[in-house]
Amino acid sequence: MRVFISILVIAIGLGACVPAKKYNDLLAKEKKCSEELKKFKTSSLDNEAKLKTAQTRMNIMEKDISQLKADTSDLGHKYRSLQSKYKQAISMGADFEKKLDEIKDSDAKHLARMRADLEAKIIETQRKEDALMTLEKELKKKQLLLAEREQRVAELEEIIQRQEMAVKALESKIAQALRGFEDKGLKVEERNGKIYVSLEAKLLFASGSTVVEAEGRKAIIELAKAIENENDLEIIVEGHTDTDRLASASHPKNNWELSVLRATSVVSIMTENSSVNPEILSASGRSEFHPVDPSDKAKNRRIEVIIAPRLDALFELISK
């Protein structure tokens, strides 16, 4: 206990001697991380809203397709019914003409009545023929609209399927690259269309430190090299801590700073040891407020690298 107190006193003394420039640099880095986090959160919320809009619109189009199919079926029945009636009218007209020929020498009044009936039938036949043509045009229009909607839905489904296949392939590639670290506190899994690479703090950092240890550095470099040729991604590195409070006059002063600084340390290793595009990277700290197991502090002390595909093609198709 006395040794611990002595070490703590020396650490506090050394912390008090931190140059103002280094302190200001840390504050600037923290501000930059906060701004990047805010930017990523805004982008994430926008993308989630756009994705929800895309799914809503696709559901509406699927409902429209169902209605169009029902309308098309109904129009088809009406078309066939009118066609049958039209044929019956033609047949009746032929019968009337035949009867007219048979009675053309009969009573003039009877003949006039027959002619009036025939004219009425002709007018009715013409009306039904016009209605039949109108229904036929409407049926073709509905069929074209149905085909267009089905094509749009098929394109949306194809894009989503390609995204899912790409995520699966990338997950397999990452898992293969990091296979040697599976029993050292590293886990790779896919959730909700995103890849989560979780690295426990014991693999990366000494207690309270923001400097990545040699073994953890190897894992981060392997991960970076596995994704360095992937540009259609958005990657966020999140730092997580346990609930133990820091008692230090120097940086990091609290779990927020510790989680942010650890995340930026990981990002620095990724960019310095691979050709990962820095534009798709962001770092953030979540402190102790997102535990994976409230009863196991060791699991909560971790870095999570969240890899998500960009949905630009999907949103572009929807906007059209």
TrEMBL record:
This is OmpA-like domain-containing protein. InterPro entries: Bact_OuterMem_StrucFunc, OmpA-like, OmpA-like_sf. Residues 192-311 form the OmpA-like domain. Residues 108-180 form a coiled coil. One of its GO terms (cellular component) is membrane. Gene3D superfamilies: OmpA-like domain. Keywords: Coiled coil, Membrane. It comes from the Bacteria.
